[in-house]
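One-letter codes give the sequence; backbone shape is given numerically. An example follows:

. . .
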Amino acid sequence: MELNWAIGNVTCEEAQRNISSYACISINSRCYKLDNGYGYRCHCEDGYEENLYLIHGCQDRDECVVPGLNNCKYGCVNTVGGFNCPCPKGYHGHGTIGGEGCTRGQSLVLKLVAGIAVGVIVLLLSVCCLYLELKRRMLNRNKQKFFLQNGGVLLQEKLIRRERSQDDVKIFSSSELEKATNDFHSSMIVGQVEFGTVYKGVLPDSRMVAIKKSKRVDPNQIDQFINEVIVLPQINHRNVVRLLGCCLDTEVPLLVYEFIDNGTLSANIHNQAKGRFFNWSMRLKIAAETASVLSYLHSAASTPIIHRDVKSDNILLDHTLTAKISDFGASRLVPLDQTELSTMVQGTFGYLDPEYMQTNQLTEKSDVYSFGVVLLELLTGRRAISFDKPEAEKNLANFFLSILKQERLLQVLDDNIVGEGKMEQITEVAKLAQGCLHVRGEDRASMKQVAMELEGLILGGKHSWARTEHNAEEMESLLGEG
């Protein structure tokens, strides 16, 4: 037999509406509905006990005192309405039997070290980012400074003055050319010129280029640099090295040309091994092509141009051994109403026109004299200046003229061309060179005449300028008894 009881015959919701008759008056009690009849009952919240029908009847129960009321493994801490099972020192988790258990936690020192490490890493990253940003800004400032220093404004002014677009001259960035030359690695050097170094480079479109880099910076070189950028694009001739562009944002100015893969004429004919493969026909062809360019510059260009530094180092040879004239840094545009320019003497010792050296008056005949020395190099295989020779032979032009006076031409000719059976042509070219080397410029032929004479020799004609008094017997006497 079971005795069941309840309070009233209403639900919990209805009972709570009437506070005066509501029985669950303890703060920590609550009402619940019976399952087998009418009415309701009260009971204390979990963790509380005692008389729930009194105002403060439900009191906190200390679960830690009664072992069966807690499942703590390492110790019990009573809380209002419950309890906690703490872990031993150095551990974290829930110290219950059969629960998550306690796991060893990081020590304060380890946490401190980790925190400091993270802080240091963040600080280093911040410093690196700041350094890179400052470096980028400094690099941009330097590029702007170099642009001004390398004559960027002067170049722009000259392009505008000549009514030419800046798009005609490609402006390369320093990073483009560094990438093209593997940061100007020594393995990419293909030659040394008077004022700098020439590197081989490969552009992103796989084009091979030659990049001329000055050794140092001075105002005279800047003028030459700007002059070459202005002059070269005006020359439309297949035997002139094509200028592709320039770079202004580096410490020294850079010029970018098409790449000519067989080096300079000087490096070929003054090398004993290579010189053997340059027969007379090749040499005559190179001489004619060089003369053709100079004739074009003097007579056919829209504005006449004096190269002012004609020499074998500035004559390049491509894969077909076609001559290409380069290095127009010293060249000068000649106004149509003038025949000479008053300038500071500039050129290469051994090729310099003696009249120009004495008067400072630059004329087209100055290029004629320099070309005459190049003809001598092709004839003799000797350099314009040879410091290892006896005093009388150091200057090729003077030595050659003295040999002709002594009628001993054969003794000075390159052995590689003597046995080819072309002595008549060789003698004609020797006399042509002699005519180019007159001390007085007015006694020299023009480059147009020289080019025509050389072309005539190639086509089978005979040298006519300055030979009216020469005949076969004179040719034999020039050659000497040899």
Remarks:
- The two ends are 156 Å apart (CA to CA).
- Residues 463-472 have pLDDT under 50 and may be disordered.
- The chain has three domains: 1-61, 152-258, 265-479.
- The first strand starts at residue 29 and ends at 33.
